[in-house]
Amino acid sequence: MLPVIYSDEFLLHDTGSFHPERPQRLSAIVKALKSVPFADQLKWQLPTPVTERDVMPWLQKVHSEEHIERVELIAKRGGGNLDGDTPVSAYSYDVALLAVNAWLDGVDRVLATEDPAFVLARPPGHHAERDRGMGFCLFSNAAIAACYALSQPEVKRVAILDWDVHHGNGTQNFVEHHPKLAYCSLHQSPCYPGTGYADERGEYKNVLNIPLPPGSAVGEYQKAFESEVLPFLSIYRPDLLIVSAGYDANADDPLARIDLQPHDFGLFTEYCLKLTRRIVFGLEGGYDLAALAESVVATIEQCLV
Ligand SMILES: [Zn+2]
């Protein structure tokens, strides 16, 4: 069985009529997962309500009070924007807190079962920095989940692998100063947000950026995984691996120009599973509904092999 942590409440983060990061993304994935041959091997789980587990102590490890209060205030006023492409609707603050809890639930499940879990939540998180949301992201879900994992006695080191097509500037900004965390990103360059250079290695040599030119396909990714990503993660020996699982590196994705196919994410998942089965996959980007849904299916299917 593979836990899929999901709530219909994630659909309430309203980004407007024409925004690529839209509720239909999750609906398309849910629909696909309900009709796959291995549907009976999925264990759908609701995230822990914020009334049962307060996410604030974990949120505050990664974000400033000012940023958290700003998001809350904009939502309370009925909505607004954090930047040109990062809307906050009336429900967005509550939904974003529930999304953080879903990622924390993913950590709990994986540590309890020693098997992967998939967190099907939105908004995404890897662009959110300590003091600001940006790039569709309100709170830095992966970094917060990593902090939460480190509070568990059996967890000494956590690695975050980010295969979203965009560099996770927010995640790196947090991880690069933290000796118990590592961050590895494969991303298109040049591309939004313009960060993630290969010579940035982190204060503790705990960052690995692999910028890839537009037009790169699975061959370039395989080479990068085998020669850089897997050695980096093997040496680091994480007690938990968190995958910032964005699927906007698909050839059909409208926001970037990488040429992956949905089944390629099954291959990347296979690489990860060779390192450890303690993997929390959490959804980041991915904006072509069909490619997104197929890619999540490929990721989960590989975990069930
Ligand atoms: Zn992205």
From TrEMBL:
<dbReference type="InterPro" id="IPR023801">
    <property type="entry name" value="His_deacetylse_dom"/>
</dbReference>
<feature type="domain" description="Histone deacetylase">
    <location>
        <begin position="19"/>
        <end position="302"/>
    </location>
</feature>
<comment type="similarity">
    <text>Belongs to the histone deacetylase family.</text>
</comment>
<protein>
    <submittedName>
        <fullName>Histone deacetylase</fullName>
    </submittedName>
</protein>
<dbReference type="InterPro" id="IPR000286">
    <property type="entry name" value="HDACs"/>
</dbReference>
<dbReference type="Pfam" id="PF00850">
    <property type="entry name" value="Hist_deacetyl"/>
</dbReference>
<dbReference type="InterPro" id="IPR023696">
    <property type="entry name" value="Ureohydrolase_dom_sf"/>
</dbReference>
<dbReference type="InterPro" id="IPR037138">
    <property type="entry name" value="His_deacetylse_dom_sf"/>
</dbReference>
